[in-house]
């Protein structure tokens, strides 16, 4: 993975399909303990949003590579007191080897990348969640062995996860359908990029009909109906999104061998029922574990671990 050394990952479109496939191959080798790359480097985590899986998986992955992690909580750094992004970026560039940022605006992430020479990884913004989708693709590959001929349907809010799923599926040659209520569609610019990547090889379909979107699909995916920063809208969204709940009835429309994914945290019996989460078709816990393996592969590749 020499091609990734020193590069940023600000969104999935920063990668080619071949690079995604290579990352997934390395992630699988790491999970099976077939390879043990090492790098004595320092990862900074600058997270302005709450995190469980992203924070812990990045930390454990870096430690297992032989590196160190510094948690740059905005509440205990000058970031929380309003230090300009470009100033923080130029200082951290002199201390760290790589930086993962979890924030609201994609522009803030891009500003960090512009002012820091070290690699910057998108650990979640309001626009994209690329590291999550690398783990999602790894989980799908484990379940089906390949991507060709598969279709993934995402139902719910057209948020950052939906945006990155469109790009990820297009990159590896999967069909993707995004079913949202009217007015909650994914970012139009990301849709355009995903369709350019897919060209005439695969489909990127947007619809407001969840049942039509789910018919015969191989992967059924959802996320919370109100993301971080949208908590005040949660109660108003409930009746709008209710037809998009992944329950046993909706799941029955998918392929009998379909799997169910959720990036977590989940509001059980809201966007997904408890029965489906705990059912035989759920791969949610494998998906969560794969965050660590996919991110370890990403870190090893960007840092040139040997």
TrEMBL record:
EC number assigned by the record: 2.1.3.3
Location of the Aspartate/ornithine carbamoyltransferase Asp/Orn-binding domain: 149-301
Location, primary (coarse class): cytoplasm
Single GO term (MF): ornithine carbamoyltransferase activity
GO biological process entries: citrulline biosynthetic process; L-arginine biosynthetic process via ornithine
Statement: the UniProt record of this protein carries the keyword Cytoplasm: yes
Domain Aspartate/ornithine carbamoyltransferase carbamoyl-P binding residue range list: 7-142
A GO term from the CC aspect: cytoplasm
Pfam families given in the database record: OTCace (PF00185), OTCace_N (PF02729)
Catalytic activity annotation: carbamoyl phosphate + L-ornithine = L-citrulline + phosphate + H(+)
Stated family: Belongs to the aspartate/ornithine carbamoyltransferase superfamily. OTCase family.
Protein name: Ornithine carbamoyltransferase
Source organism (scientific name): Dulcicalothrix desertica PCC 7102
Lineage start: Bacteria, Bacillati, Cyanobacteriota, Cyanophyceae, Nostocales
Name of the coding gene: argF
